[in-house]
């Protein structure tokens, strides 16, 4: 195996060191999940495994990234010393964890040392890698724990001394070594490994080609390629911003060349990439974290998230199609592969997904075991068959181990910091107090509570990665919604949706701003366009909270009826927003479509019978049919180009 190649150039010792540490993370995860230690007669606690993974992640973080968060060619002596200190401290914690656990009540100096190193290193790590927003939020909770007894009103809590604080949040199994870090190091790491294997074998090119073949010949095909490709890529990659950076360099110029405004081109890619965090199987690691928080099977979470994700992409796909029709954006003229040709070359990439789904939903295996089986299927398929000149080699397989480990560093730091917040909420009583304050503030109005919660989720989610957003909001906001009577899985999906909407909502719309960098459009204008194109995502959470049938919680007749009404409602409002259906629409018809679509949406908060929703949906469909029947002939789309 060759060491990773990095930019800027790094000395050989650093490349090999990072490659070894990163590969060790993946190997340790695989060995843990196949229970190698048990088969060898060695008893290990899960916290020992997590301590090892956290030590490896912190060591890599301080070796690779400067105090300004940039990747370095060579770490300075201070950072190298911190890296060695972190790895050594957490290796000691992993080795001697059983004794430390027995002595925890007596607060030995070793626990204080471990806790201090963990707290300071993780906080500095997230400052460098996750940004000031998460660093500041976690910092506020740590400061609160020191002065909780002096906080006025209902938020008063039990204060902790500095030593007690670092002992608890930096070592305890209810804080840093709690479920978020466990999910990240046991489950999510394997799914990231699965995704990296897929891309190394040529799966990324296969899915891009499949999206191009399926949609590239339609009007506005360039945008439809972005929507389908980013949905497929984003549901696996786990990061909206990295998805924009990876697929956007291809799709955004393609959309601009096809005739889309540069603001719309960037917005379409941002919205499509953000939707990947809401789409099974991985959902930016949130699906596994959600299953852990709710103590339900992963399959239940994936099933509940499926229909809202389809409706999300329905709204986006319809809008890009209508924009193309309205603005005369034709299909690209160049020849493309057909779906049959793409599948003929890359059908073997469907096998690992079939294995994954079979293992999860039919064999009922744990997610980590399913990911292992699917990864083995990719290795077998990728070695036996190539795709357009790309084949999985031994060298490429070694690089996958390195890339998986280094790509997990940020996530491990984020979930470790989230453990700090969970620990503070538990030990000070702040979690209960926040729920009480929020519920008391809105009285019996569930709608008002949802509106306030949505705003809080967007604000707290700004500038944060998916997993960090979810864990933070699951601890702070979701309990209030559940206390008010919202179904737990609906409450957790609600906060995930609005946490993700921070990615396309100014003033800190990371996905939209990343897309604007590629399209060279105004960042704020791109963010506002993204809100318009992704408008359905701001409504869907209210819909599935009010109507749980959208989450597969209902009767056999109720679920398809509710999904159908929601689809018609989203479609009609999208027509009104875009201002086109078979021809350009005047203000009266646009308002009519919006009104009918809004009334068709089965929002159970409003005193509207299901028959009224059905009547509105029927009227919207009838109006659309009438417009189509009376549309002028020969209005073919005209291709446009835009710099």
How would you concisely characterize the structure shown here?
Helix content is 72%, strand content 0%. It is mainly α and 643 residues long. Helix 3 packs antiparallel against helix 4, helix 11 packs antiparallel against helix 15 and helix 28 packs antiparallel against helix 29.
Fold and architecture overview:
By secondary structure, this protein is mostly helical. The chain has 3 domains: 12-152 and 164-172, no CATH class; 153-163 and 173-552, no CATH class; 554-631. It contains 30 helices and no strands. It is globular and about 80 Å long. Residues 1-6 and 635-643 have low confidence and may be disordered.
The major β-sheet equals: none
The secondary-structure element order is HHHHHHHHHHHHHHHHHHHHHHHHHHHHHH
Number of strands: 0
Unreliable segments of 5+ consecutive residues: 1-6, 635-643
C-alpha Rg, in Å? 25 Å
Calculate the mean pLDDT score and round it: 88
Overall 3D shape: globular
DSSP helix count?
Answer: 30
Label the structural class.
Answer: mainly alpha
Beta fraction of the residues? Answer: under 5%
Task: Give the helix proportion (percent range).
Answer: over 70%
User: How many discrete domains?
Assistant: 3
Q: What assembly state would you assign to the polypeptide chains in this entry?
A: single chain
CA distance, first residue to last residue: 44 Å
Secondary-structure topology with pairs:
Layout: H1 12-33, H2 36-39, H3 46-64, H4 77-95, H5 97-103, H6 109-129, H7 132-147, H8 162-169, H9 179-200, H10 203-215, H11 221-237, H12 240-258, H13 262-275, H14 286-294, H15 298-327, H16 339-346, H17 350-362, H18 367-384, H19 394-428, H20 430-442, H21 446-461, H22 466-476, H23 478-483, H24 488-501, H25 510-519, H26 523-533, H27 536-546, H28 558-578, H29 587-600, H30 610-629
Helix pairs in contact: 1-3, 1-9, 1-19, 3-4, 3-9, 3-19, 4-6, 6-7, 6-8, 6-19, 7-19, 9-14, 9-18, 9-19, 10-11, 10-16, 11-12, 11-13, 11-15, 12-13, 12-25, 13-15, 13-25, 13-26, 14-15, 14-22, 15-27, 15-28, 17-18, 19-22, 21-24, 22-24, 24-27, 25-26, 28-29, 28-30, 29-30
